[in-house]
Records
---
Amino acid sequence: MTPDPVLSHSQPPECERAEPAIVVRRTRTTDIDVHTEQLQDWSLHYDQLDCGSFEGSFTDIRWPGMQIFVETTTRRLRQRGHLLPDSFGIGTMLSGEGALCINGIRAGVGTLLTCDTTELDLCTPPNCTVAGLVVDAHTLHEAAESMPDLAPMLRPDMLLGMTPPETALAPWRALLLDTVRLATERPWLLHDPDVQQRLRSNLLIHLLEAMAGAQRSDQIHCAGARKRIVDRACELMLSRPDEPPTLFEVCNRVGASPRKLGYCFQDVLGLSPARYIKAMRLNAARRELARGDNPQLSVYDAAVRWGFWHFGHFSTDYKKQFSELPSQTLDRARLRCRGAGTSRP
């Protein structure tokens, strides 16, 4: 399914505009790949880790130097990649069925997470809503000049989980959501440069006040060690998709017992190694089928390429994971490609 039409708001004439207009986009889709494509300028890759049909929505509000986002997804996901260059991302989970995990650090509602353009590896729980800002690094450092205690939190290559007092976090969260409502319901008000400036300033001031009073997480060191084990194990398990190594082979290569490896996977990804690798192989097969640009490709070809030798089991597992048969994914993709005229002869 394609996303809902993007909301486009008329811009005032050039002569009335002292600053560039704010751009507001809202999308909703049941296709995880289409959802990922809406994250303009973010280099992120999504995989679905649990079973069921996917639904996602994304609200994106931008003006020079700042982006506000609200993302809602129904399934447990792993999101990997990078944010905009030379920027800081600051976010908080508004709701979700469990904790989220960012680069090995677990966080829940009430936690504030900050990172720069370093690699982002985020696992979100089912029915999760995340909201936040992406701010130019220079803008954030300039706003924090009068608060020297914040300097250690704004270093390059820094990932930080912190828990501000609710009395400090709540005003920033409320202002963030009020700005989203204003931008989507009364966008013409945001064409006023004075309104733009006040919103930017207030959002940054409330954010820095929340960060200044926050208790920093002490998980970072041990979380990094767990994540390195998980990353190495994932690399090994996906290195030979048509002949995946056994769990004992992986444990020997990463230097961890099966129990320790299981603990690390549960902490970082929220599921067992066996369940994770099966989900990743199903996602890879789905992406191949969803391209629809190869008329010679069969469902069986995709299944075998990703290590599924029993076709009946593959179809059953695929339908359980994505709420549709693999043949339905392929047929829909081919129909889309024929309509766009992109199918290869």
---
Amino acid sequence: MESDNPGWIRYRDLVNEVGRRADLDFDHARLAAEATTTVLARALDKKNRRQFLDGVPTELHDDYAINVPYDPENLDGFLNQVGTIVHRERDQARYQAQTVLSTMAEQDRDLIESLELPDYVHDLLTPPPVGGGLVAGATGHPPPLTDEELREALARLPLWSGDRRALMRTIVLPPENLDRVLIRLIQLRNEVGRAPHIGRQAPDTAILVVRTTNVDAVTRLDVELAHRVDAAVLEAGAGMASG
């Protein structure tokens, strides 16, 4: 049960805000919050751990996972542990952890400032700075790609086209093959929290669109999703025949 104390971090408030900033659905935002909470608790000594866990919703931590004697020891260890839990590479693990911790710091600064945090954690307490289309800006949203970043991204995505507002890929396959591919693409939402928008133009043709709706633009999140789409199409066994 969540506390009525307005200074305490609220479960749904935190998860919803992490999802908004990181462009994740609720379940994947919850996983990011749980992972970051768990790993931070592991990084704290016993006194600070108890104080931290008393100030965050119980839904965000599993006592067994936290009590595993596995201190991350440094930033790389911290991000590796978060990444293992959320099944993301280091850059995205940092992006998610920084989004969670900066949101926590905004929602209950007194709690976070009362903790004796490892030095390496302090770098994760501010909203991710603008840079490289990877991390969020002052608004908490991932920034749009620049023209140069977009050109570089499309050079590595030969099956895609687009502009700074959206990336698009057309797939043309026999209908039964296309059905199988589209089912696989829809499953991406369960795996990573996002999936492409799919427009079925004809029985044998689909247009895929990826964009970050929060900023009405293409961000690094969309580039990563496009690469996942390409891998999923190949996984479905129809990549060589697609457009």
---
Amino acid sequence: MKCFLLLSAFLVALCKLHAQTTPPEAAPAQLKLNAPLDYQVFQRRDAHKGNIAISGVFAQMPNEVLVRSVVNGQSSDWKPLTVAINDLSFSAGFELPAGGWHRLELRTKLNGKVIEEATVEHVGIGEIFIVAGQSNSANHGEEKQSTQTGRVAAFDGRRWQLANDPQPGASGKGGSFMPPLGDALVKKFNVPIAFIPCGIGATSVREWLPKGVTFPHPPTIESRVHKLPGGEWESRGDAYAGLLEHMQDAGPHGFRAVLWHQGESDANQKDTTRTLPGKLYREHLEYIIRTSRREIGWEAPWFVAQVSYHVPGDEASADIRAAQAALWQNGVALAGPDSDALKGELRERHGQGVHFSGQGLREHGSRWASQITPWLQQQLK
């Protein structure tokens, strides 16, 4: 018995020594992902699903790549991911159901052993809108807004984030209508909503024309236009180039629509030579819409709001409003909200300014939602 006890004690000590001298198995390395990014939303293909882009760089070449998603604590099965590989860089597409946020998990294996892992906490399949125009399409509202659902995102061309004001990519440091609009659409369609904001305060439609397009008289602000020797003016094209870049980067059918809110800087200018006749406003905006569609290679829908309000006593331009409405009537664009109707306490400084108050931003978002919702329901049938 004594020998048995001694042998047992020896074996226990030997096991302890082995445990102390054997290094633990290394944890999987962090897989470098370039896409998707956190809070990234992908335009859904139909009411039920969409594709996400996955790309990154392997530290070590695997012979198996697996992916799964987790929503509301419910995990899908691990599925093999077919990847295109160039050296150690890889890319792939993967279908997900509409909705989210999805938590996306990836792992790579070599000979059955997990060697790298990555997780993206917030990935959505939903609706994406590009927002362009002047200050009331950007961050010049009186009160910053935030998403109440937590399912509204914004993208500035480099980084995705929750769409809390100020919106990335647009001018100004104040509030916008995008968080309340996004929340309204989230509640209606139960998918994440994303905005790509690129509005620029005080811009005329002339400043949004492609480079080299000419017109007889300049807008009130001349920094984005150029005078020609013959006396005409031309657009420098910077605003259009930025808008087009966002549209092209999204890819074919990679966003649902452009939301255009602009007109104040073309209506009823103090220097009447800077006021744009409605006929030219319609021609210029139609040129922007048709040219951008041709350059991106698909018929992207545009919503055009009615916009010409300045201050009490200068509350509308019938000429500019008719030009905006003509684009709907001719089938060039879809009808956005009539924001000239938002007055009084819905405007900044107790109704004395051109920009919206906090209450006005929320009402503006609600009116955009009222225009978008029935149209989008038809698209999803």
